[in-house]
From TrEMBL:
Gene3D superfamilies: NAD(P)-binding Rossmann-like Domain, UDP-galactose 4-epimerase, domain 1. InterPro entries: dTDP_Gluc_deHydtase, NAD(P)-bd_dom, NAD(P)-bd_dom_sf. Coiled coil: none annotated. This is dTDP-glucose 4,6-dehydratase. Belongs to the NAD(P)-dependent epimerase/dehydratase family. dTDP-glucose dehydratase subfamily. It comes from Clostridium acidisoli DSM 12555. GO terms for biological process: nucleotide-sugar metabolic process. It catalyses: dTDP-alpha-D-glucose = dTDP-4-dehydro-6-deoxy-alpha-D-glucose + H2O. GO terms for molecular function: dTDP-glucose 4,6-dehydratase activity. Its EC number is 4.2.1.46. PANTHER family: DTDP-D-GLUCOSE 4,6-DEHYDRATASE-RELATED (PTHR43000).
Length: 351
């Protein structure tokens, strides 16, 4: 029975990963450590909280003692690091916590794994540290071309720079100590349980509340969207079969402009839920500082080496996602009535 230490498992992708893995395997154990910041939500995991193969520890990945205690008490086989401050807009306003969690937290985890996995002649067999990174470390594309694993790092925001710093530390542990690691760099995820500060759940939530739909700049920035379950599948494949020390890009060639995303959501909600939701709600607002223009992933390596391919097209995934938020209004209400509302007002000074 393999034991996974998952960090940040109460967040968006982490909780989807925990669900995905426990559904797929009944012979694994998952320990989820999460600090439960504003973005961590145990409601995301309530369906599996009594699963005997799952346990939760509230803790900070920067806290060496807590992390080492988990390694002391459990034979950890895989460490999958999702825990991070993940929102670009917040990083522009409060960069310090991004440096702390994303860089120092990663180093704390690497050190603990090294301490418990290293032997006199290398590392114990079958161990792996997987860093969940992002395509944002590559910077921004022009109208053509794609990010490849060999594209030089050229991050711009405090968020992406902290993730790039973390990636370089992971690489350093491979290059220096031959620690068994992989890094995955994924494009924008969407799906259930995403905190409604990110574009897709924010627009869905505002449509339902008939609030303004804020579009930054000209709305023509492009993101490459991936349904979260396809990302989880890729991570599982990289843990099992990724070549040690390698980086794998994860993306499904689903580039869309932001305004296309907003109009797609308006159309779905307007046609199916509330005909008062129309494009009149769109409000062009001041652009994000240093706003990356375009992201686009070349997923050839993970496809050719590991056989990974996304299963959910954007057209299917976006409908499933909107419907999930419609079916889980209580989940959204619980978030928006609490810290999120205060956060949003503080950040944007508008409702
Ligand atoms: P999220 O903000 O939804 O979740 C982050 C989780 O980490 C939360 O549960 C939070 O409580 C926890 N956390 C934060 N600081 C912590 C700390 N110091 N110690 C322990 N736990 C802490 O983020 P997400 O969107 O699920 O992203 C997960 C990972 O995937 C991040 O590393 C992010 O950089 C990366 N990523 C995200 C996307 C995306 O589109 N969301 C795309 C590519 C990569
Ligand atoms: O590319 C992967 C990254 O995707 C991850 O590493 C990050 O953790 C994740 O947050 C996401 O970053 P983005 O900045 O691309 O996501 P966000 O949802 O914040 O914004 C998507 C696009 O929509 C971006 O161009 C900014 C724009 N936007 C966003 C918000 C919140 C708007 O126009 N209006 C908004 O209100």
């Amino acid at each position: 029975m393999k034991t996974y230490l998952v960090t940040g498992g109460a967040g968006f992708i982490g909780s989807n990963f925990v669900h995905y893995m426990l559904k797929k395997y009944n012979d694994i154990k998952i320990i989820n450590i999460d600090k439960l910041t504003y973005a961590g939500n145990l409601e995301n995991l309530k369906e599996i909280e009594k699963n005997p193969n799952y346990s939760f520890v509230q803790g900070d990945i920067c806290d060496k003692e807590t992390i080492e205690k988990i390694f002391e008490e459990n034979e950890i086989d895989y460490l999958v690091n999702f825990a991070a401050e993940s929102h670009v807009d917040r990083s522009i306003r409060e960069p310090e916590v991004f440096a702390k969690t994303n860089v120092l937290g990663t180093v704390t985890l690497l050190n603990a794994a090294k301490k418990y996995w290293e032997t006199e002649d290398g590392f114990k067999a079958g161990k792996k540290y997987l860093q969940v990174s992002t395509d944002e470390v590559y910077g921004s594309l022009g109208e053509t071309g794609y990010f490849m694993e060999t594209t030089p790092l050229d991050s711009h925001s405090p968020y992406s720079s902290s993730k790039a710093g973390a990636d370089l530390m992971v690489k350093a542990y491979f290059d220096t100590f031959k620690m068994p690691v992989n890094i995955t760099r994924c494009s924008n995820n969407y799906g259930p349980y995403q905190f409604p500060e990110k574009l897709i759940p924010l627009i869905i939530n505002n449509c339902l509340a008939k609030k303004d739909l804020p579009v930054y700049g000209d709305g023509l920035n492009i993101r490459d969207w991936l349904y979260v379950e396809d990302h989880c599948k890729a991570i599982d494949m990289v843990i099992n079969d990724g070549r040690l020390g390698e980086v794998y890009n994860v993306g499904g060639h689903n580039e869309r402009t932001n305004i296309y995303i907003v109009k797609t959501i308006i159309e779905y909600v307007g046609n199916n839920i509330d005909s008062a939701v129309t494009e009149n709600l769109i409000k062009y607002v001041e652009d994000r500082k240093g706003h990356d223009r375009r992201y686009g992933i070349d997923p050839t390596k993970i496809k050719e080496e590991l056989g990974w391919e996304p299963e959910t097209t954007f057209e299917v995934g976006i409908k499933k996602t909107i419907q999930w938020y419609l079916d889980n209004k209580e989940w959204m209400n619980n978030i928006t009535s609490g810290q999120y509302q205060n956060y949003y007002e503080k950040m944007y000074g508008r409702n």
